[in-house]
Specification:
four-stranded parallel sheet; iron-sulfur; 31% helix; 17 strands; alpha/beta; single chain; Radical SAM core domain-containing protein; 353 residues; S-adenosyl-L-methionine
Length: 353
Amino acid sequence: MTFRSVFDAPFIRSEFDKSGINTQFIPTIWKYVIQNPNCEWRDIPSLPSAAYSLLSSTFKPCTSSVDSVADSTDQLTTKLLVKLQNGASVETVIMRYDSSLGKYAGNPRSGGPRSTLCVSSQVGCKMGCKFCATGTMGFKSNLSTGEIVEQLVHASRLSPIRNIVFMGMGEPLNNYTALVEAIRVGIIHAINKFHDDLPNLNLAVSLHAPVQDIRCQIMPAARAFPLGKLMDALAEYQRKSGQKIFIEYIMLDGVNDEEQHAHQLGKLLDTFEVVINLIPFNPIGTLSKFGTTGDEKVTIFQRILRNTYNIRTTIRKQMGQDISGACGQLVINLPNKKSASVASLTDIEDLRP
């Protein structure tokens, strides 16, 4: 018999309704399992007897398992290979920060250690971005709500998780229903709906080029989503939400990293409230078709955006040099995959307006 994840929200609600069990008990179950991932159903206190029977016959606290764990030598980054019930696998990455180190906006930082989890939403990806290892897999399947949440359960065994970013394997808005359900514990047509359904989350957009022809060269799916329509959708999203938008921009040597591209990007985003994240490209073994932009060139690009267009622009810090867990490097069974540096997301709490 195939058991369902207790975190598959629509299914467990339906089963509780059919069994005449109050669905208000479900959040209690979720909270207990996240805090006690090795629990037995009878360990959860104060549930109706019918709930225990249903949980035992139909659900498991986790349908997935951790197949392997890789730690960076500096212990700041951990990559988990998670095996799903159907035999497929995904990767999820824990990134650790100490916000008390260094300065922010010229002032000492407050706070202390915290961890961010980079979660996968699909096995593979249909977007086919040429700089991304996940895209070489093609699209295999969507993760269920439970399989998304279970990555948090597994990661929580290793580190207390404070923030979550959906920047792992797959395009999260292509698995929209499961994404929304998972969040409750850049596809254009989903952007405005995203704010309506989840108004308190931050939206990050994989832009990666300031003009449509370059986007199409490096992101084949961009042909279906013209830049003009994307910008219109972002303008409407920002009008309704009042929130800053995070712009992801991978730096590809000689492709999208010249000074003219910085000016084009600045003009494109001049009327928006955004934070731009410049991402140094991480090679993906023998499949790499691009080179990494030099540090000086990245700094010049950042300076143009900051000084000429007054746009807050960050450069992703390099972390975990030895586990290939970077943005764009998550992949299952990639031939000739070489170890490469891990560029982590700038701590999401430092980017909040």
